[in-house]
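Lay summary

Proteins are chains of building blocks that fold into shapes. Our project writes down both the chain and a compact code for its shape. Here are two examples, one after the other.
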Amino acid sequence: MRTRVEIRRALEFGWNTFKNNALFFLVLMFIFGVSAAMISVMVEGLPWASVSVMFLRGVGWLWRVVAIMAVILVSLSFRDTDTFDTGKIKEMKHLIIPYLLGSLLFSGILAVGMILLVAPGVWFAVKYQFMPYLIIDKGMEPVEALKAAGEITRGFWLELFVFLLCLAGINFLGAIPFGLGLLVTVPVTFLAHAWVYRSFVPSEA
């Protein structure tokens, strides 16, 4: 049964889960963050037309997508079992291609929305925000996940919009002290997002 978006409960879950597993999440964020930063430093100041730079940027985008996928998987695992089931890593293998295709589809839709006007892009982002979760959690194909995401958020757009604004504000504050706060705010907000997703799509376990 669908429930209202309980922002406070979601954030409390995110903070408490992070606090109880701080070392795990800090190491996870450090690994992904340092890797992404190294790629950014490698391409900084280099010409865009260079084949090697385009390749590195492509690798950087791919790594960020896989990193987000991994964090979503971890967040869902903690939401469902209060721990991370390492066996879930094996599930990533057959989900990578659908998730990458889904990311391209989602990015394309947002780009079209932003080109038309900012408002349609924001509307799409809120309406279809659970598309990546449905691919990972339910093994849906990208188009199927897109349609399902639109259906499960129907009637809750404004609440979900406010929720995403809260998450964006938290991460903005985390970025102020040289970005170090993101090591905390990113996992907290992902965990909170996973909590809200589960309020719409219960676990089958």
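And here is the second example, written the same way.
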Amino acid sequence: MRTSTALRFAHIVAVLFATSGVGAETTYRWIDPGSGHTVISDLPPPPGARQVIHYTTNTGVGEPQIPYAVRQATEKFPVVLYTSLGCVTCKEARALLDRRGVPFSERAPNSEEELAELARQLGGEALLPSIRVGRQSVRGFSPTAWIELLDAAGYPSSAPYRVRPSEAAE
């Protein structure tokens, strides 16, 4: 009898550990009763709000909980980092984005055609690293210009949802 109780207890503990990392995020969308504007928020709507819709997304174990403001900035102003292999300045550019917690995609042009296309998109010579935030871009690595561009897009000034790579390496 003691063995079956211990087995049940072990099973319950195992189930709790397996499900503890799974969570859900809810985003609400509604029409504000006072202004008539559409509001999207991670907070529940006030009483009297019309056309309330709530979206729930499940996140699994190990997935970062990206804050609402970062998700919004990413949807409106996606970030693309243009780099090349072995580029020391490119590592600094990546580190700047990582410190700020900015999700980004990285592209490394490999051919003359790709470099020419990048130069056309950036409006001049293709200096690497370069960044595109939404429709705006900065040619070459200029931390001040990059920070201003990221601030204008609404990205956070520091990574709020995870350990910075530099802290993990220490």
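What can we say about the second shape? The chain has two domains: 22-63, 69-169.
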